[in-house]
Amino acid sequence: xxxxxxxxxxxxxxxxxxxxxxxxxxxxxxxxxxxxxxxxxxxxxxxxxxxxxxxxxxxxxxxxxxxxxxxxxxxxxxxxxxxxxxxxxxxxxxxxxxxxxxxxxxxxxxxxxxxxxxxxxxxxxxxxxxxxxxxxxxxxxxxxxxxxxxxxxxxxxxxxxxxxxxxxxxxxxxxxxxxxxxxxxxxxxxxxxxxxxxxxxxxxxxxxxxxxxxxxxxxxxxxxxxxxxxxxxxxxxxxxxxxxxxxxxxxxxxxxxxxxxxxxxxxxxxxxxxxxxxxxxxxxxxxxxxxxxxxxxxxxxxxxxxxxxxxxxxxxxxxxxxxxxxxxxxxxxxxxxxxxxxxxxxxxxxxxxxxxxxxxxxxxxxxxxxxxxxxxxxxxxxxxxxxxxxxxxxxxxxxxxxxxxxxxxxxxxxxxxxxxxxxxxxxxxxxxxxxxxxxxxxxxxxxxxxxxxxxxxxxxxxxxxxxxxxxxxxxxxxxxxxxxxxxxxxxxxxxxxxxxxxxxxxxxxxxxxxxxxxxxxxxxxxxxxxxxxxxxxxxxxxxxxxxxxxxxxxxxxx
Length: 558
Hints:
seven-stranded mixed β-sheet
């Protein structure tokens, strides 16, 4: 993936996750989710959903092109378009470098915090004798930790997993037994819940996505809910709500701390006011209300997820695979648009032309043409001008020269309602596919429309049905062509028309170049198309092989 593609995907991911997190942030207040235990689980679920769903959605999708952007659409076969960003791509190389540098800087800060904690531990003193209230708290929770005191801390700091340590202010020895018991219970509950591991993971995530503002907001809510959850548990055990609240207030009044502790990345603001406010309220939720809250939150997040994926698709997500009606012109990297003289199929905002007199123009089989029992495919490329008149008609593929001439003669008499862009008629490049069979010639593709059903050969040549004789198989895996570097540097453009055979398994076989404007694009086109996979082509309920035409346009972006 190129730097520009990486940047585009990262921007889409940032927008997706921001939309999901923004949708989820107000839900606890909206649904009256006061219980901190439930809130904490909710915040973790929201984080996991928002950060992982884009990747789950992306799983199994084809990779994006390695440079430029890729657009296209189904067109009587497949016509796709590849854009190259040229020199405008180079500045984007610095985006991943800057992001990696920021993540590395914050990782170093975290490492410095761990070193500082270890230094504080070594300079602290073991609490001896340990107050009886601490022993009682340890017996209640069936968990223990090493209690130490330090003049550098004013509020308790609990860290470590295998050998947890609780650093306390030296003033703790002067507190009442009830206050000591509350402090010990609070810190030992953190030890029992393995909160230190959770904090390390959260801060690591904050380091990797340091540029994500919505993530910081949610992680702040996680830290608050974690403390509130422990607060409620201490009150449940001690049944001394007022004593505990008084202890918290006393700890806050002595919160001066040393500069060394102030810069620790693991311990953020205490949220004292929110914690005290919650301790004065009733936070229980009935099972019915809890179920309603879960269902409502899930519905909102799923809806927001669908909107996010559709609005800001990653390369490889459904919205970004060029099998629908989306396409773009111009440089995605530079943000500048290009006003083409001839628009390509699928250009965003383009209203397609409508064929006006198809039924009035008859395809007459000329003398010297193959018999009607032999099906012959003719594919034409043309330009429909601002008056709806076909111009620059060229044969892209043909099984017979005589029928090619007859097809050109008929199509040249067609007239369209012109394509429209921003309310003005414009020229557009178009593709027409005609199948000559045992009945009249049947138009199979007028640009991107389906056309009429064609007669099906009773005994298709080599067991391969001609394009248009059966329903178009659905493309399910599409590997984007790479814009050749040499062509990108020289600003070359061109069209490659390929013929393929889709076998009964939906695999692309027998890839051939039918027509190419420049051989420099051939290898790129063949390599990409050979990896495409379709749903099995079907005829009379059985999988069959079908011959298919694919056109790839390589267009340099100015």
